[in-house]
Amino acid sequence: MDFTKFEKARIVGSRALQISMGAPVIIDVPRSMSDPVEIAMLEFENGVIPITIKRAPANP
Amino acid sequence: MKAIVWKDTKKNIDMLLKKHQVKYAVDFAPSNAKIEKGYISTDGINFQFEVAIGSVSPFKDDADVLKKKTGLISVLTLEELRPVNRHISDFRFNGKKIAKLTGFMEGEIKELDLVPSATIEEKIDPEVRKVLADAKKMSFDMPLSIAVKIAAKRAEIGEKSYKKLIKLVQEDLVRKAIDPYEAVGIIAAQSIGEPGTQMTMRTFHFAGVREMNVTLGLPRLIEIVDARRIPSTPSMTIYLRKDLEKSEEVARRVVKEIENTTVLDVADVITDVNDLTVSIKLDKAKMEERLVEFSDVSFAVEKVRQVNITPDEKTRTIVLKPQQESFKKLYQVQEQVKVLTIKGLTGIKRAIARKESQDGPYVIYTQGSNLRMVMDIEEVDPYRITTNDIIEISNVLGIEAARNAIYNESERTLQEQGLEVDRRHLMLVADMMSFTGSVRAVGRTGISGRKSSVLARAAFEITTKHLLRAGLLGETDSLTGVAENIIVGQPITLGTGSVNLVYRGNRKSD
User: Fold this and answer.
1) Taking CB atoms and an 8 Å cutoff, what residues of chain B touch A49?
2) Residue pLDDT, tens place only, B141-186
3) CA atoms lying within 13 Å on the CB side of residue B89
4) Cβ of B141: how many Cβ atoms within 10 Å?
5) What CATH number has the domain bearing residue A24?
6) Do the domain assignments include residue A33?
7) Does residue A57 lie in a domain region?
8) Which of B62, B207, B238, B477 could be a cystine partner for B364, CB 3.0 to 4.6 Å?
9) How far is A3 from chain B (nearest CA, A)?
């Protein structure tokens, strides 16, 4: 699924919050990477974040 | 098609509306021609109702007959009343138009010959159509203007580059598409507002064609957005029919036909209190400019009642003496003469025919606007005629035309100032102003003032009044807009606030 820029922002944002509060990271992350937002972005690009979105049905 | 048209009171129409089939006794005897339709008007100009007429019979005093007052001649069996929107100019009475209806008349509806125009697809060049089809195969819609450009270069660049080009266009279009839930209204407001600040400094001037003024710049833009009933300088651009547009004679004739000329425009009106007369002294220069003959004036003056008229062509004066010797009557005659129309259409104060280029067609520019009547003139091309009165366009041609007019007018106003605003912003404004079916202003009387949400309206203006009213009437607020959600402290329904996150567990079954 193609995400809009808003959807991407929400997913990455929520995931970064989880990581910042100590959630286990799903993929291997380089040691030098410590910013939760950066890690969340990496996870998003690899499509491993366990979050998706529910869209409103299109207008009839 | 023959039809009976008449003017009736609101009360009578309400009575007719209540009953589905009714016998209606009237003081009018229709001819023997077959009549199926009737049209009813309350003001004699606009017709609000169409009615199917079942039969016409001579008048008999039956119990089930709905009556008008006196002099009843025949009974019309009316079957079904339908609301319509027709104008007096749609009818012909013995082949002639009339300006206003007073009682009953038998008229003929001007039949329109419908010529199906070519569909958009048919108008497109086959080569261009191929390009569009190729784009369609890649599941995207290519704008026509781009397709035309590509089609022109296709042979030159070769098939391989052509395929690549289409691909590039697709990528570009997808990248530039606005994401759903983007706040496009705010962006449009900023994109029009910023160039607007530059306009203030440079405008408030009028650019004119001879003595003709047209409001331009910021004042005009405000006027469009406010959806004023009458613009401060209404004007029309009239094109003549293709076969006549180069004829000076025709252009002059049309100008003469539409330009509204009153007695004061060509003459001095002098009231002599001693002799109790009103004399019209015609000015030769003014008459020549307005193409008015002495006979035109003397003919128009005949409309004044209860006066003795003595025209004198040599001295170009017409003396009117009221039959009744009183100052009051004299004053009335004087006032009536001043505004007496010699010729022309109401509303059109001035008309000038101009050639755009050396042997180009004549185009007529007017001060004042009367779209409906001008469109009706034989020599005029009704497809190209325009007016800057948006409300008039909406009344005559409908809301879609008004929407295009809002767009064209605002685009042109900005263009004249040398400002470039993306057309999509203007289109959004035009759509917002017209989507309800009537032209609404942007400000408090229009879009902002009539939002469906109580809280949004309360946030905009007169908070207590809106809240009190909502409380009394028990209104509900569905909290779908932006202002409402900010008030109650929820994320707004735009941008990231519009996204619903869902946990996606158990990845294996995915």
Assistant:
1) 504
2) 888 888 888 888 888 888 888 888 888 898 998 888 888 889 999 9
3) 11
4) 11
5) 3.90.940.10
6) yes
7) no
8) B238
9) 9
The minimal CB distance from A4 to the residues B179, B505, B507 is found for B179
Q: Check residues B19 and B254 and name the one with the higher pLDDT.
A: B254
Place of tokens 């006196």: B70
B496 and A13 within 8 Å at the Cβ level: the answer is: yes
Residue B361 has pLDDT above 80, yes or no: yes
Residue with tokens 């294996």: B508
Which two tokens mark B181? 């839930």
* Gap from B501 CA to chain A (nearest CA, Å): 4
> What sign does the dihedral B15-B16-B20-B25 (CA atoms) show?
positive
Domain B261-343, CATH among 1.50.10.10, 3.30.1360.140, 3.40.1280.10, 3.30.1330.10: 3.30.1360.140
Residue B450: per-residue pLDDT: 75
Look at residue A52 and tell me if it is in a domain.
no
CA distance B183 to chain A (A): 12
- Which tops the pLDDT comparison, B509 or A15? A15
CA distance B470 to B477: 9
Do the domains B2-109 and B454-498 sit in the same CATH topology, yes or no? no
B97-111, B314-328, B369-383: the lowest-pLDDT one: B97-111
The interface residues of chain B toward chain A in range 488-507, judged by CB-CB distance below 8 A, are 495-496, 498-505, 507
Count of the separate structural domains present in chain A: 1
How many beta-carbon contacts under 8 Å exist across A and B?
A: 41
List CB contacts (< 8 A) between B502 and chain A: 51-54
Whole-number Å distance between alpha carbons of B204 and B217 = 7
Contact assignment for B181 to A52 by CB distance below 8 Å: no
CA–CA separation, B394 and B27 (whole Å): 36
In chain B, what are the domain boundaries? Answer: 2-109, 122-176, 184-208+388-449, 261-343, 454-498
Report the residue from A6, A51, A53 with minimal CB separation from B179.
A6
- List the single residue in A6, A14, A48 with the smallest CB-CB distance to B181: A6
> Would you give the distance in Å from CA B48 to the centre of its chain?
18
Please give the CATH topology (third level) of the domain spanning B454-498: DNA polymerase; domain 1 (1.10.150)
pLDDT of A36: 94
Q: Which CATH architecture has domain B2-109?
A: Roll (3.10)
